[in-house]
UniProtKB/TrEMBL annotation:
Xref: Pfam families: Cas_CT1975 (PF09344)
Cited InterPro entries: CRISPR-assoc_prot_CT1975
Gene behind the chain: cas7e
Name of the protein described by the UniProt record: Type I-E CRISPR-associated protein Cas7/Cse4/CasC
Length: 413
């Protein structure tokens, strides 16, 4: 990596990730009306993809990279029920046990409601009185729990240890019912972490000491230029009507919203925060950081993928190691990028970001920038972005070596 100051003077604190990526006709992230998300920035409408959407896509790819999963759900009791059924428990007892697990933590709960049927035991009187009735032993926690996937086996193990009490216990039928399982033991499992939670964080105020400050910050992605939302009318052909030719019209008609554009994406990882989450374990810091960097730049939200297949890769990826604070380049695009005829938006976006990077680093003082580098598809001479690398893995490896002090035999975490 290209250095501007001796890293021994200022230890690495943040690794910033800047991405310029063109996305064709798509709707990566819809709102509650299935519309394209937008934002008005620089008095121009931009297409937007929420940080939550791109962070989820990143987390899913990240989990594949490190071979660990975290489970976020209100239905943890049902998941424990399935685990116990796989272990050979009778279904009624497994359902009761799962309900007692969900009801046994510090998190308040409610009973799930379903449309009454003979299968779930509702009688005609209940069906007439309430279109949706409480289902005994189907417990939902009021807050989403976020735990390592291995926590399911641990919670099932608690049920195994207390099987006799569960066999004689009453079903959970209302929110005031008490679990026969030990609350402190269940809460202890809900506090468990793995690499996913240590990196992305967890908010769980209902359980003491379960919260984890995330080491990753992700910005909403937005187009570098003004965009329009386009409506796509479509119809579905009824094959038999077409074959028999005995009627006119389609089997279904509808429309969807889409847009296209060049996005600026930004994220940063706080190395000291990650170190405080996992302790003095440089190898784990290296593994989690590297996996996140790779996952973020290659991830893509999957909305409407079957009808748009917008599987592009970034045009430019820029990584920067900083000593004091993150630095987003979003302000480079407050003035929307303009395109001359036939030039598109990616090239002028890269040029605008590169110029802004040089000016911003100069204003802040180059001593804060410990290292920087970039990779691209079809862009050259981006001198304000540091050293050029051939591939993503080369760039990530270089930034990790520099940020973690491996070139100089020291550790910043």
């Amino acid at each position: 990596m290209e250095r501007t100051v001796s890293p021994s003077v200022r230890p690495a604190r943040f690794i910033d990730v800047h991405v310029i990526q063109s996305v064709p006709f798509a709707n990566l992230n819809r709102d509650d009306t299935n519309s394209v998300k937008t934002v008005r920035y620089g008095n121009a409408q931009r297409t937007r993809v929420s940080s939550q959407s791109w962070k989820r896509a990143t987390r899913q790819k990240f989990q594949e990279e490190i071979g660990e999963r975290a489970l976020r759900t209100r239905r943890i009791g049902e998941r424990v029920t399935r685990e116990l059924e796989e272990r050979g428990w009778p279904k009624p007892l497994a359902r009761r046990a799962g309900a007692h697990v969900a009801a046994g933590s510090s998190i308040k709960f409610e009973l799930a409601k379903e449309k009454p049927t003979e299968k779930n035991g509702a009688d005609d009187g209940v069906a007439k009185k309430d279109a949706r009735a409480v289902v005994p032993n189907k417990v939902l926690t009021n807050a989403l729990v976020y735990v390592p996937e291995t926590a399911v086996r641990q919670l099932a193990g608690i049920a195994e240890e207390h099987r006799e009490e569960l066999e004689s216990a009453k079903d959970i039928k209302k929110a005031s019912d008490k679990s026969v399982l030990p609350q402190a033991t269940i809460d202890g499992v809900l506090k468990a972490r793995n690499g996913v939670i240590n990196l992305f964080g967890r908010m769980l105020a209902e359980v003491d000491d379960a919260g984890v400050d995330g080491a990753v910050q992700v910005a909403h992605a937005l187009t570098t230029h003004e965009t329009d939302v386009e409506f796509d009318y479509f119809s579905a052909v009824d094959d038999l009507t077409q074959e028999w030719n005995d009627a006119t019209g389609s089997g279904h008609m509808g429309h969807g919203q889409y847009s296209a554009g060049t996005f600026y994406r930004f994220a940063t990882i706080d190395l000291p925060e990650l170190a405080s989450n996992i302790g003095d374990d440089i190898e784990s810091i290296r593994e989690l950081t590297g996996a996140f960097l790779a996952a973020f730049v290659e991830s893509l939200p999957q909305a409407k993928k079957n009808s748009t297949a917008p599987h592009t890769i970034p045009g430019v990826i820029h990584l920067a190691v900083r000593s004091d604070r993150p630095l987003s380049f979003a302000a480079a695009f407050e003035k929307p990028v303009a395109s001359t005829r036939g030039a598109g938006f990616e090239a002028p976006s890269v040029d605008q970001m590169t110029k802004y990077a040089g000016a911003a680093n100069k204003m802040l003082g180059n001593g804060r920038l410990l290292a920087s580098g970039w990779v691209s598809v079809g862009h050259d001479d981006l001198e304000n972005l540091g050293e050029q690398y051939e591939g993503i893995s080369d760039l990530v490896e270089a930034v990790l070596r520099d940020a973690l002090g491996e070139k100089r035999g020291e550790v910043t975490a």
